[in-house]
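Q: Second attempt. The first request was missing the SMILES, so the protein and pyridoxal-5'-phosphate are both included now.
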Amino acid sequence: MNMITNHLPTAELQKLDAAHHMHPFTDANGLAEKGARVITRGEGVWLTDSEGHRIIDGMAGLWCVNIGYGRKELAQAAAKQMEELAYYNTFFQTTHVPAIALAAKLAEIAPGDLNHVFFAGSGSEANDTNIRLVRRYWQVKGQPERRVIIARWNGYHGSTMGGGSLGGMKPIHSHGGRIDGIEHIGQPYWWAEGGDMTEDEFGLMRARELEAKIEELGADKVAAFIGEPIQGAGGVIVPPRTYWPEIQRICDKYGILLISDEVITGFGRTGNWFGSQTFGIRPHIMTIAKGLSSGYAPIGGSIICDEVAAVVAEGGEFFHGYTYSGHPVSCAVALENLRIIQEEGVVEHVRDVANPHLAKLWKGLEDHPLVGEAKLVGLMGSIALTPDKATRARFASEEGTVGFRCRERCFANDLIMRHVGDRMIIAPPLVITPEEIDTLVARARKSLDECHAGLKADGLLVAKKD
Ligand SMILES: *Cc1c(COP(=O)(O)O)cnc(C)c1O
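A: Got both inputs this time. The predicted holo structure:
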């Protein structure tokens, strides 16, 4: 058997990696100089690298390893499915048991009348499906000019042309452009953009930008609104509580389809099965991926309500699909993952054990001199770093300088915590225990202390003047 082994020295692996492997979202020259960290094993919330460090994974990989690493049941489900039927497609009136079983299971778990699943290979692909699906829906309804989708600046919906265009990240738009028919409104990010408003006032103000945008474009041109219940890649931006009810009201008023991108917030992350339930959102479509398989196999999809599915069906064939839509191995792995989440009470563990335990410690970080707000919903947390909490000041240094330095200290302390600009974010595996949470927070605090000392020494604890 051709086994992939870790027999090469780390420096050799890093050299080969830099020479032949183009990494996503990475500065290739910077990487070649430093060498990437080589991760070799995972167990629960712990990773091991090629140097033997034991690292606590505060990000669950890329927000996806909800049940933790190393679960043999998923490996067995994949092996069994590969032996039985490694592949068959779901095009042209064929199907197979894993896709049927997973679609039925998702319909059971999803709230309301979200009863129909279109499978994709990833979250980006699923959002590309959503663009085509909502436009097709209005076409069949006899309103083909309704094709604009409204999204938010600093939202993240993937990195394909469609997903990247729905997202509101200018650096992504600047590499390759974006597709037409997508408009962006402001994000509900009170800490950085709320000025003198209360959080509640600001939440309403930002939601009403949706209404203003619809009026500007004409309601008869707008197909849908898409948003993440909590912005993940944008920095774990928790919206004010006034935000989503107002968005819902506006979508209802103008008859606009509402897409909740649950790629991160789905499958227990917020202490409910879906972020929509945590925020009282009633979407027509939910985007899913990541935690659907806990990252053990690539899979994504859209869960679609009865009415939208019926209208699209009325239109006859929908000319859309991926070779790997409903891949049997990915479906089998996802099913086993959902079984574990359900039978082991993982969502209840987040809600009743892990969140309450972490919430106390996380909020406690607000007494640290570098930390402004500390936010946590379920097991999705962020802290805003600031040189002056009272004024919610930014640093004078280029945005992200301080966040990067803090992340470097976390790395050195065997904790994976990401930075988005000068915000630090976490989303650990949902199965994290209270003892592991204590370790995570202790390492985070140590890293913040070291970062703070370094900033002081380098004269960087300076607020930006507006
Ligand atoms: C990660 C992510 C995506 C994209 O998923 P991929 O599987 O990386 O294509 C889409 N939406 C949200 C909210 C995400 O966090």
